[in-house]
Amino acid sequence: MLKRAHFVCAILLLTSLGMVAHVPVQTARADTAVSSHGSPVGRWKTVDDITGKVKSVVAIREMRGKLYGQIEKVYDPPVPDPRCIQCTGDLKDHPVIGLQVLWGLHKVGNRWTDGHILDPESGNVYRCSIALEDGGTKLRVRGYVGVSLLGRTQHWLRVQ
């Protein structure tokens, strides 16, 4: 019984590291094909919660039961080839296009939670939960510190 438990643990570890052949390894450009409207997988226009203007397009994909999102396009950038100048570590000065801004969300009931979101303007990382609204055409994105009450919500629009 103990040997079987060690074997299962080893497989789980290798799977999480992407070392088992049938498990896809995460890349910067994973498949982002739009699924049914019952899933947030697809392309979303981010909308500034103050001005109401579309700021970017984020492509959300699912890998091993978790959601990840990367910026695909930026509308009216303040400078050509914008970079995450406020980010720290490896993300410091990383191009905004291609930047992963959502990660680690997993499904709980009718929402995806326990993930993180990066605000490329401030460089801050927040806890995050998302949920579909209006038949899957809107995505409620909640970024927060600590508990969900301490945060803000944006509504993103599905790219048709």
Fraction of residues in helices?
A: under 10%
Count the DSSP helices.
1
> How would you describe the shape?
globular
The biggest sheet amounts to: 8 strands, antiparallel, barrel
Mean pLDDT equals 80
Strand order of the largest sheet: 1-2-3-4-5-6-7-8
Structural class: mainly beta
* Rg for CA atoms: 17 Å
Number of E-state strands: 8
Q: Segments where pLDDT lies below 50 for 5+ residues?
A: 1-35
CATH class: Mainly Beta
Number of folding domains?
Answer: 1
Amount of beta strand: 35-45%
Please report the distance between the alpha carbons of the first and last residues: 52 Å
Q: Which architecture would the CATH scheme give at its second level?
A: Beta Barrel
CATH topology: Lipocalin
Order of helices and strands: HEEEEEEEE
How is this structure best described in words?
The protein has a single domain, classed as Lipocalin (Beta Barrel), CATH 2.40.128. The chain has one helix at 2-16; strands spanning 42-47, 54-63, 66-74, 100-108, 111-119, 124-133, 138-144, 151-158. The radius of gyration is 17 Å and the shape is globular. It is mostly beta strands. It has an eight-stranded antiparallel β-barrel. The model is unreliable at 1-35 (pLDDT under 50). It is built from one helix and eight strands, in the order αββββββββ.
